[in-house]
Amino acid sequence: MAWRIGLEMEMGVISQHDGRSHAVTRYFEALAQVKRRHGQQVERIELHGRTIGLDTEAGCSGLDNGYNLLETAFAPVPGGAGCLDHLAGLVNQELKDVIQALDAEGAALLNASEHPDCPLDPQWYAAVRVDRPIYQELVGYRGWAHQVGIDAKAQNGPCTSVEVGQAVSALNTMLALAPALIAMFANSPLEAGRETGLKENRLTIWDRMFEHSRFRGDHFLQRMPARPFDDLGDHYRWMFGAQTASRALPLELGQGYKSAASVYLDGDPALNEFLRSGSWEGRSGPTATPLVMRPRGGHFVYAQYAHFLDARWRYQVEQEPPLDALLAAWDRPGGIETLLQSCGAMGYIEGRAPGAVFADAQLIDELGRDIAATAPVAPSAVQLGLLNNLTEAEQLWRQWGWETLRELRGAAIRAALDDDRVRALAQDVLAVARAGLPKDEQRWLAYAEQAVQARRTGADRLLELWQAYAGRPDRLARIGEQRRVCVIEPSFRV
Fold this sequence. Notes:
Elements (H helix, E strand, L loop, with lengths): L3 E12 L11 H11 L5 E5 L2 E7 L2 E5 L5 E6 L2 E2 L4 H21 L3 E4 L11 H7 L5 H8 L14 E7 L4 H10 L1 H7 L5 E2 L2 E2 L9 H6 L5 H5 L11 H9 L8 E2 L11 E4 L5 H5 L4 E5 L5 E4 L3 H6 L8 E6 L6 H8 L4 H8 L3 E6 L9 H7 L1 H5 L4 H11 L1 H11 L1 H14 L4 H16 L10 H9 L3 H11 L6 H9 L11
Antiparallel strand pairs: 1-5, 1-6, 1-7, 1-8, 2-3, 3-4, 4-5, 8-16, 9-10, 11-12, 12-13, 13-14, 15-16
Helix pairs in contact: 1-2, 5-17, 6-18, 6-19, 12-13, 16-17, 16-19, 17-19, 19-20
């Protein structure tokens, strides 16, 4: 059993009046008041004099890439018996708080993993984007088409702790089995007011964002590898190897990767090359001041976010790994695992495949309150069950075959559970996940199990509404009424 679980929950915001994508204005002030009434201590997070998040004991209530896309990163909760009940309680309380705060400005949450009819044009992007320092590099320097995600493309990302020695096995497993999670939680069949022909259009974001990047390695790092990783050293050779260009590095180690003062390395070397160089000339991002960077083990740790696959291994260390020891360990099978363990590393798998799915009036009418109530926590239940049952989960993906599963990812994005092979995989995945959960935690799989049994996803329900209201000027408003997120306390809660 994992010793800790967490969740990164993204939520698209709409206007209650017309259902259009809504950029929050007074939301954080209202949310702070709501949370203080619960007796919570609240610390504001500001950017350029504007509040972009609130830190509380339960986690961080903030924003993803735009003011129309909220993100709550829950603080990890202890694993073991009752952990999913605990997480569900936190999720419900957060949703209640968020919904109440949004109501003060006539806004609500939409049950979709992408807004069905939202602009992607430069004017909307400029007005809505959270102006984080990292975007100066990603958009201005690397040339990412960041605007393709500004229509509230939202995931529901489970975070499950694993031992360092199991990191690669867990990562391979969640990457290989991702088509099942994509399909079960598909919820984005529409974009910019049209049917896309896909059940989870959200996941076209990475291919489109990096297609014309200045560095082809950026596009490479969002494609599932041709084979599973042998160990962490192999994983980081893939991520930091010659086919890639290092992301900007922090002027001072210890800065957050989204807010660090960036340093660009001259000639754009791979991180592996920089770490083995002794020193490298570069320039500071804000001022273009020339400087010399000397590699440290901390740069290796800092750069762990560089890829955009369906799952990531993320970790913290108690002490920075010495560079010489790091480079020596990197050349030995299992060496990075041994080194990170000696540095007190603690890590987890960040799941990125499941789209955002919540309870709403349409779902409650169709499936009832108890099944609808499990929707936000179901991805966490699936991932927890798989990683608690890692030996069988690994056997499962090896039986299916890595190449087959790479192919099924596209089928899951396109057809979700309408594809017979994807559905068969999802059935196998749920069986392994169920076996990895205590009996009284298995109930949190209910939404996923119902979706697979009925071959019916959030995307299917959204498409039906879209087609039912075709031609009506109030189409988005009517969809917003049916798909507005609500909070359900299931009858089985303990």
